[in-house]
Amino acid sequence: MMVNTGGCTIFSSSKADERFRVVKSDQSVRERLLWWAYNGMLTLAWPWLVLDNLLRCATNRRRWATAWQRLGWQTPLLTSESPRIWVHALSVGETHSVAPLLQALRESLPQWGIVFSTATETGQEAARRVLSQWVDDFCYMPHDFSWSVTAMIRRVRPHMVVLVETDVWPNLVWTCHPKGIPCVLVNARVSNRSFVRLKALRAFVEPVWNRFAMIFAQSKLDHERFLVLGIMPERLIDVGNLKFDSRPKPLPTTDRERLRRDLGLSADRPVWIAGSTHEGEEILLLETHRRLLQTHPNCLLIVAPRQIQRAAVLVRICDRLGLTVACRSLGEKAADRQVFLLDTLGELASFYALAKVGFIGGSLTPVGGHNPLEALAQGVPMVWGPHLSNFRQIEEFLLASGCARRVDDGQQLLEVVRRWLDDAGLQAKVAEAAGVLFDQHAGSVRRILTRLLELLPESAG
To answer: Is 352 exposed, middle or buried (0-12, 13-18, 19+ CB in 10 A)?
Structure first.
């Protein structure tokens, strides 16, 4: 029996078909011990997760609408009874990277349903905005408790589960395997920090990795690291990075001119932009801009914080540094301001097109950086700090092509931005190199799609 409450379904009891019933596990003793240890820790964490969700709901009323799904107490009400593929991405970056694969799945399997889940609110907003033409239903991933994952599997009834990049959910993988539901990991990567930790825990985590039907590594280095972590070679393939297949279109000249007019920017005013910035590096960026104004007094810095809720903190920092500031969310203009805060969602790609120089956030602090290809697609030369470890191979390609520079501190950043602002021909060179790079490294979608179609059961269609 299912009880519908506000667009969601709570399971009180259910009679699942043969494919989704509980099946005797073939776990080894080591894997059973890992299962008990993992779920024991989750059980201990349960009261704190409930408390955390309640506290977040108290400060963010919109979270009430999703808290029940996150806690696993409700499952989504789906719109189609077609055979389904369930795709999960952690947040915004993973959502954008998997978009071309979803388009390819929709075109190849037009009669199938696609369910897409995220773990964050910003990821959910991005998914609904970007993926709605290919996805039938959107929902939140519940916390990885065995009972909540089982309820989701029974509700979604997927014929395949696709996880993106690094968001591995052990109970989800364990629950799917004995039911014959293939789990795959696409655009898979292992960061430097995670590799050290996972290698030390290889004996414990290896059984989880090998429950995947296939892992599609995004680079040769990631492929090698997965092998070291104990992945069976026949389940691992290096297909390249999906992000090269999700190339944003360059903003048309008319749209760029219109955006400049909307912001009150003259056609000749120089702009540099810092995208997806994090706490700790923003103060350095703003101090760099204050020094830059000594030689380029009309220059504008656009700052797009990764967490737009931090805009008020950045306004206070600007005031303390004596920098005039405007906020996009308030509808303010940049005409007479020195800093413009892009504190809205979904506009960063377009704003890159206004700039002569782009800084990639999360790279001056040990976050791992964010996707530099958005800026590259707009023909913008890029600079970042020493911590772009989440995009190692892309970093190598861009540095070798001359499209980017890596700096270690604020002084080096200032020197690069000054020099590039005065280089009139640089953007044309970057735009030309960008086209070559995207063409050379695209194609992972086609390679992944071929393997996914082979894994789907013939009877499902």
So the answer is: buried
